[in-house]
Amino acid sequence: MAQKPSLPKGTRDFSPLEVARRNYIISVVKKHFLLSGFGPIETPSFENYETLMGKYGEEGDRLVFKILNSGDFLSKISPDQLAAPNASSWTPLLSEKALRYDLTVPFARYVVMHQNELTFPFKRYQIQPVWRADRPQKGRYREFYQCDADVVGSDSLFQEVELIQLYDAVFSELGLSGVRLKMNNRKVLTGIAEVIGAPELLIPFTVALDKLDKIGQDAVEQEMLLQGLTQESIERARPLFAIQGSVDRVLDELSVFLATSSIGLQGVAELRFVFDGLSAVSLNELQIDIEVTLARGLNYYTGMIFEVAAPASVGIGSIGGGGRYDDLTSIFGLSGLSGVGISFGLDRIYLAMETLGLFPQTIVSRPLVLFAHFGAPEAMACLPLVQSLRSAGVSCELYPSAAKMQKQMKYADQRSIPWVVLIGSQEMEQNTAVVKNMIDGSQVTLPWSELSSWLKVQQG
To answer: Is the pLDDT confidence value at 321 over 90?
Structure first.
């Protein structure tokens, strides 16, 4: 007996309705990308190993899916290396390629490789799948889509204002109210590390701090101790956990806390500029907060950072994020090119909209019309009518065989097809069609010449 097939953990199949709903979200996101002047690019699903590794921090690097070399993949490893206790040292020899972890690093690689063909500032959007060897859970998958918008070649903070407006426009059109955008600045975090006396531990400090909303203050402090921070440094940082209130109040308290750090005060000034820019425009429902403990674990961020939280009633965490990266292209040999970008988490946005019942009822994955099949002559007569309807933009199909009418009607009912066209021998003689409403059972007889226009009206 054949073994029942299964899917790898963290991956999914999508039904026609699910694909239609995902495409709806993508169409809204793409619409606003284009309205904001972003153009599309695509990059390969896998990159060279060295392109990806070392760009996401130690935790991120562990989650990169490596691709095993084809052929005799052990040929490049010596017996001494095989005997070494640390098998991770073999990885670069076993895997020359890896699946992309996000869209930002491949984008940086793209910019460097195509720099002579681009006009800067260069604005691009990209909607493609990414892969992470993470532990699957609700809203977290090993294969998922990101919808990114980035600008490179400008250090203007007006770009940050525009990207936040982009978030607001998309979530507003999707009907997602109660979305909260949290802001911080990596320069603020650098300043905090200076003030608490641990500038050399900035990365482990921010990685631990970023977990505050997931594991709580006590666990974060314990992790900081394990990462080498002293108890004194942690005690100096504790006032940060209590900073709350309006944006102006948070910025004022930060200015006092960071009074001795020039880079920290620069970060505060950038936060204030972006917030002032947002105050000058009309946002729909996006709530803006400054969250001092927001760190976003990716090492390439250097300035403003963002994270978008789903409505609290959904309970799935972030549905987007991003930030500024001043040095990302320099890792590929092109320095002095600042960039900033944001990402929409398609899969989590889908979960939020599904939970809240926000998908329009008009999103369908079935045709509007089914032509019943009475036999070969009748089916032949239906073919030009099917073609005419499709040319007029009415989705339709012909049942493929002359099955019992009960079976054909059941097919239409199970697929929620609202209209069935019946053309038997009598209708062929009269050039008419009986159109049956599958919802209320009513019927109307129409000339073939009026069929297309009548159904188009029903389609709306």
So the answer is: yes
Mean pLDDT to the nearest integer, 87-97: 77
Q: Domain ranges in the chain?
A: 12-179+310-365, 191-284, 369-459
**pLDDT tens by residue, 172-206:** 999 999 999 999 999 999 999 999 998 888 888 88
> What is the model's pTM?
0.87
Query: Tell me, what DSSP letter sits at residue 438?
Result: T
- Determine contact, residues 348/174, Cβ cutoff 8 Å: no
Looking at 3.40.50.1000, 3.40.50.800, 3.40.50.10310, 3.40.50.10420, the CATH number of the domain 369-459 comes to 3.40.50.800
The fold adopted by the segment(s) 12-179+310-365 is: BirA Bifunctional Protein; domain 2 (3.30.930)
- DSSP secondary structure letter of residue 417: -
E strands within 132-242? 143-152, 180-185
Whole-number Cα distances in Å, 271 to 21, 54, 97:
36, 28, 39
